[in-house]
Design a protein that fits this description.
homotetramer; Arc Repressor Mutant, subunit A; 2 domains; DNA-binding; mainly alpha; elongated; 207 residues; Tetracycline Repressor, domain 2
DNA sequence: CATGAATGAGACTTCATTCAT
DNA sequence: TATGAATGAAGTCTCATTCAT
């Protein structure tokens, strides 16, 4: 019960912890946190069950450590995004959509948000942590871009959060359909990106 | 030999399974399928542990029964939707967005998709069942509306699935943020509906 | 826990109790006392579970009542046997073997000893009751016959209990093989009876 | 989350399964398979409940493993018996009776047949296995001896199976009386052996 | 550092028994 | 009498965690 979830997570030295976290991510994603057995994770990391406990105090700590590790690069990338793109907001939005589409198509990448969502009912701090560090940051970054576009006269002046939802929502629901519900892909990433940007920029209605 | 106690009082047995399913939905949603104890569900239904097994063979069967019960009305509503709206596709899309927004804002309603997603890794058939009966149906219904709009000259001729994603994605990601990650609502449903329709119909870019 | 097992067993009136005991014997024999469910017995007696408890206080009482009922006629028949046969001991032994062979071939009849044996580790009183009322009585009856035969110069003067074992043992082991282990019969009852008597009377060794 | 205790001390793991089977045999014999709790067996083996499951998948598997282990030496001994004794069939029969009497007098030895019989209604394969590997083998061995004796002119030419029943039946019924019904011994093993052989060889009737 | 045997709390499930009707 | 819904103790089995080696 260590609810604190800060930037520095206790961990012993060497490469082992990372290998264990890799294994944990794979097993948690495959079976879910509750069903995953510590022994499964140990086996996936080619270690004995006991050895896992040399690096992590408990299964819960393993989860926390994993979330931390996975979130860090995303968070910093998101922070960079906003500033980088204000010069050409349209191009920046295009880049976001195409990058995010490709990332979310990757099961290894989508594993973390998926895991966070699945453990959220039980680990409120993890949910809150992710919301703050990832979701709110992403909305913030998109908002900055949108405002820049509005200021530059290229974007209509509408609710930035709604814009963020129109950018991330379609990507997210598609990832869920594919990775969680096991749906077949019906269009290539490229076509999805193009269609997404097209509708987002031009709208659905004939003018 | 075994002590044994009798029933505290008796109620109309006919409604029992439904009461249990109600309790199960609440408890599963609150804690997740794995963490939920049958005894929790029994307590929520004001029954003893053992009584649950008079109506359902196992915890898994409880889950399956629940999903089936919850999915049935959604599936039939979706089937109706497509035909109903082809006369005025714009109004129909508006109606879908406003209805779906309100439904997904309701935790009781959102509980089922959420539960399905959380058990999907373990219960592939449930995932497949939901995908077929709900997701594919919804996409189909939207597609019919969209094609009708294209035929009538009101909608641009683009990929219908992308349109479906632009309709459902923002609603779904918002519901996740709110119900699963515990985010505060920053805009009223009405404003979200308006903004959604506005961007969807008109696009983001200034003309 | 009523270890007393006397001649008069409490039971309510009517034919029901007997029907229930019939059902109990069938189910106990089929599955064993522990595995048999009261509901199985009730179903076999075409009654509801609760009704069984109108006639018997518990599953254990059902067992005790059953044993009592089944043992009574055997016990009295055995008592009669000894006196009846002293006139012609050889014929009497022949009769015992042929009667017992036929009785033990009958699964319904063999059910009780079999049941007694299976519950003996748990219900010592039942074991003791059966031993006293049936086994010891049978040995006693055979002993009387044997001594009469010795007195009459037809039987050799050997240990009567050993004689009893040579009479009952082969029958019993055959019944076990057939009814419990499910062995096929390789000889008709008549041939078994004849062979049994032949060896018992004449011995195995050539003279 | 789960508290968890570690091992109290560690022993040579190699012998563990056998120790558990020893404990299982004792407890199964004492209480019967159904009534025996895995925890009882664990305690008898000086282990915790959980440890039993490190070596056996289930209580049933424990039973099966036990039967197999116990049957193996009996089966091979029986196979040897027939060939060994054809030179002097009378002596061989004498040896069988005296050996079997002593074996069946030993509760530890009689435990297995007794257990097999008690679980036979529920585990048909075990019953069949025992019948084939032990009962049929024993009959076969005796039959070989008997035929050899007939060929050598020492035994009368009668049904070999009946002879087998006259050899094993008295021993078996005596073991049941003593170990299961708790009867007192009224004659020493030696006297029982002598009387058995006497009647078997010479017959009951005066000549 | 690493192993894996061992522990025991706890979950699911069964079923003898009771009791309102 | 009869029914069958309801109860809850108890048993099997799992698995996070510990610790002797």
């Amino acid at each position: 019960m260590r609810p604190a979830l800060g930037p520095k997570f206790r961990r012993r030295a060497g490469a082992r912890p990372d290998e264990i976290l890799d294994a944990a991510l794979a097993v948690f994603t495959d079976k879910g946190f509750e069903v995953a057995r510590v022994e499964d994770i140990a086996a996936a990391a080619k270690l004995s069950k006991g050895a896992v406990y040399l690096y992590f105090d408990s299964k819960e700590e393993l989860l926390r450590g994993l979330i931390e590790r996975e979130i860090a690069p995303i968070a910093s990338r998101l922070a960079a995004l906003a500033n980088a793109g204000t010069a050409d907001p349209k191009a920046a939005v295009r880049l976001i959509i195409s990058t995010a589409t490709q990332l979310l198509d990757n099961p290894r990448i989508f594993a973390t948000p998926r895991l966070v969502l699945s453990v959220a009912p039980r680990f409120k701090e993890i949910a809150a942590f992710y919301r703050r560090r990832v979701v709110d940051e992403a909305i913030g970054a998109i908002s900055v871009l949108h405002r820049a576009g509005v200021a530059g006269g290229v974007f209509r002046d509408i609710d930035s959060e709604a814009v963020a939802r129109m950018i991330m929502g379609p990507l997210f629901i598609q990832a869920m359909r594919k990775h969680v519900l096991g749906a077949e892909e019906t269009a290539s990433p490229e076509r999805r990106i193009d269609a997404h940007i097209d509708i987002l920029f031009e709208g659905l209605v004939v003018r």
